[in-house]
Amino acid sequence: MKKNIVIPCMGCEKLLGQLCTLAILHLKRANPSKITLEPSISQIAAGEYKESILGDNTIALNGCAIQCVNKILNQRKIKPNLIISIPKIIKDIKLPQKGQATLDYQDHEAVKSISNQILSQIEVFLEKSQNMETKPENKVEFNPEYSQFLEAEFSKFHFKVPVNDKNLFFNWNEAWAYHIGEGKFFIGITDYLQTKLADILICELPKIGDKIDQFEAVANIESSKTVNEVLTPFSGEVLAVNHELEEYPEWINEDPYLKGWIVLVKCPNYKEEIDDLMNPYQYFEFLEEKIKEEGLQY
């Protein structure tokens, strides 16, 4: 049976780090058989235990936006099965007063609430994993036709932009959409964006049947550097998602215009919405200007 190894942030000098540590200790005491806290992040950083945790569920618990747990796991080439962010959890929780640098006994309810939300996310993940193991999946194949690739260079970076004169569109938020007919579009992110994000660790996918508006977030990508929303070029209904990305999110880095597709949507109003998008040549010009103006911080 797989163990659920929770690896929390150990930043006890900051309030969020303390909340993270206390919440996970509370969770462990209340659910001793559900999770384990061994090995610790310091042991993993020292290069220990990598082999022994392979095959188990590794859950990264980040205390702040720096995402130090993600970064250490990435350095040790350990891919977390689930990433939980304390800053996201605390949005609806009453926290200690501003200016308070440490916690006291009156903050027990906040710790308990955070602990419950961590447990809830773990249970959702475990249920989803079990369903994926037992449910036969109808795989969706993406077979685009690209006539050529336009290429741009900046410093040590090399970017490619595929070309299909009729079916490929881009928005200004670094997302692409490929039309396969009948208003159906495969959607993903650009080579430029995946490079800027660096190592992609997790891709949060929508549910099939979800309705989305044009330029609304259709997925969330967490990388070793940041969290990024994927803003869809077209509105519509989600017909399929790339479940392979749940196990291999790095495909977005490796092959953003093919294996790294994210969702398939059906857009009834696509003919009107095309006017707000760029074709591959227009996007390439936009990309060259963007590189000159912004550069690429990596």
Structural description of this entry:
The protein has 11 helices and 14 strands. Strand 7 and strand 8 form a beta hairpin. The protein has helices at residues 15-30, 41-45, 50-53, 68-75, 86-89, 108-134, 191-197, 244-247, 251-254, 270-273, 280-294, and strands at 4-8, 57-62, 82-85, 148-154, 157-163, 168-170, 175-181, 184-189, 200-204, 211-212, 217-223, 227-231, 236-241, 263-266. The protein is an alpha+beta fold and 298 residues long. The strands form 4 sheets. It has a 6-stranded antiparallel beta sheet. A 3-stranded parallel beta sheet has the order 1-2-3, with helices on both faces. It has 2 domains: 4-134, Rossmann fold (3-Layer(aba) Sandwich), CATH 3.40.50; 148-294, OB fold (Dihydrolipoamide Acetyltransferase, E2P) (Beta Barrel).
Provide the helix percentage.
25-40%
| Low-confidence region ranges | none
Task: Report the structural category.
Answer: alpha+beta
Number of domains: 2
How many angstroms separate the termini? 40 Å
Using the coordinates shown, work out and report the CATH topology of the largest domain. Answer: OB fold (Dihydrolipoamide Acetyltransferase, E2P)
Fraction of residues in β-strands = 15-25%
* Whole-angstrom Rg: 21 Å
CATH architecture of the largest domain: Beta Barrel
Characterize the biggest β-sheet.
Answer: 6 strands, antiparallel
User: Could you say which overall geometry the principal axes of the C-alpha atoms support?
Assistant: elongated
- Spatially, the strands of the biggest sheet line up as 6-7-8-14-13-10
Total number of helices: 11
CATH superfamily of the largest domain: RNA polymerase II/Efflux pump adaptor protein, barrel-sandwich hybrid domain
Highest CATH level, the class of the largest domain? Mainly Beta
Topology pattern, helix = H, strand = E: EHHHEHEHHEEEEEHEEEEEHHEHH
Q: Roughly what is the average pLDDT, rounded to an integer? A: 86
